[in-house]
Amino acid sequence: MTASFRAFYERLVFQNLTYNMEHPCCSARQIPVLLIMTSNAPDNMYQGLLRNYQQTLSRFVGPAEVFVSGDTLQLKDYSRTDWQWTMFDADAKYKRHETVFPQECKKIYEIGVSLFGKM
Question: How many domains does the chain fold into?
Answer without folding.
Answer: 1
